Amino acid sequence: MGKSTLLKLLAWRKIPVPKNIDVLLVEQEVIGDDKTALQAVVSANEELVKLREEVSLLQKSTFAAEGENNGGDDEDDAGERLAELYDKLQLMGSDAAESQASKILAGLGFTKDMQGRPTRSFSGGWRMRISLARALFVQPTLLLLDEPTNHLDLRAVLWLEEYLCRWKKTVVVVSHDRDFLNTVCNDVIHLHDQKLDSYRGNFNDFEVGYEQRRKETNKKFEIYNKQMKAAKRSGSRVQQEKVRDRAKFAAAKETAKNKGKGKVDEDQAPPEAPKKWRDYSVEFHFPEPTELTPPLLQLIEVSFSYPNRDDFKLSNVDVGIDMGTRVAIVGPNGAGKSTLLNLLAGDLVPSEGEVRRSQKLRIGRYSQHFVDLLTMDETPVQYLLYLHPDQEGLSKQEAVRGKLGKFGLPSHNHLTPIAKLSGGQKARVVFTSISMSKPHILLLDEPTNHLDMQSIDALGDALDEFTGGVVLVSHDSRLISRVCEDEEKSEIWVVEDGTVTSYPGTFEEYKEELQREIKAEVDDD
């Protein structure tokens, strides 16, 4: 709808921004080179780097001059300039720069060892974190963040929430994470019907205000519609024009009142007659799975390690999933959450231990990897018909299009090559395919990354009504809370320190524990 475009226009100053305000948009991953992650963050402060380089050159030239006994005025000038530079560096907090950069990187999940690695050795997701760390380190007056939580794990999201709550400057964020918006924002700008509407308060406050505005708009439309129908029945064109003009004048008066003028501006084109509020809605559904006798899937004393990777191993993994089971897998990035999902799916074979699967078990799998593996030159309809040829009804193509429509893919995209679809549209094709495979268990690895808020809610509703098993890896607190609402059927698996343990409390308790740790860390800073 144009949210990312709006941020770019601000960053490029196509929307006027006062000259004294420095603007920084975080949208692209840092370019990988031989700089370490820590150096990449510190180098974001270009002024600091220039001053340090000048100090270094002056020190070398002064040292060389002393060695050649060429003192005198030049040496005095260099000494004065050095003293001036030292004062500037002190004011900029140069001594604490590396320490501050290190704390930001640690908050975003970088260990000490990772901070010393060259940026080229990191994947795209980690490079995005370095970009975010650079922005937080520089502290621009206006910080623009486009979906900052997409590449973060739950702990890093909670750390960023805490960090931004203490941010003294202005942040404009585009995000689909409700909890994140609720915690961080005190104003909401809603892009609706190609207009920007402002709401005071956090996301919960916005929802109340939005609903009120929607009801008021629809009420005005109903009154206008009723009057127009009556005028049309009378057959009088004059009467119809009167109704239309009255509605336009009322709308213009309200616009003027909202702008604080109190009277209609004659030069301004009058607003249009009332229209019905157009809501965007989407529904996801997974079919009712056939009953299977438990256990559906078990990992018994499983261990796994990758060849040539001494730094990673999962050991003594003992977990199981049945119909109705709800599992959230949590833990730091790189600890093995995706590896555990791959072991459950059968994509990886354990080094030790046993995997037991029900013979007729069908698994529905979602991850970014699967989105990237779509056949890009095919259309969604061609792709799905190839994977699921057994469609019922007169037209197999229409049956597939009906399913794509239910997952919110617009009809004009059904016959578009997949390569031309956005990330969110590709995700819908994968979800449609999962639904068509009629799974007993859903294994979902960060399913919200390319979904808008309404689609995440629709996914939550679909998982609520799904009677099979659900295993979820996500940084979206609200989705995890929804999936793990029923304490009797829910489990929290913590992947950390090379093994998988079951957390003894609820997800909310786990989250509160993390928040306490993070708050203590940030307080120390």
UniProtKB/TrEMBL annotation:
Keywords of the record: ATP-binding, Nucleotide-binding, Repeat
PROSITE patterns in the cross-refs: ABC_TRANSPORTER_1 (PS00211), ABC_TRANSPORTER_2 (PS50893)
Region annotation (Disordered) ranges: 251-274
GO molecular function, one term: ATP hydrolysis activity
Record-annotated ABC transporter domain positions: 1-218, 297-522
Pfam families according to UniProt: ABC_tran
Amino acid composition bias (Basic and acidic residues), ranges on this chain: 254-266
Coiled coil: none
SMART domains: AAA
Gene3D superfamilies: P-loop containing nucleotide triphosphate hydrolases (3.40.50.300)
InterPro entries in alphabetical order: AAA+_ATPase (IPR003593), ABC_transporter-like_ATP-bd (IPR003439), ABC_transporter-like_CS (IPR017871), ABCF (IPR050611), P-loop_NTPase (IPR027417)
Entry's transmembrane regions: none
Highest taxon in the source lineage: Eukaryota
Name of the featured protein: ABC transporter domain-containing protein
Protein species of origin: Populus deltoides
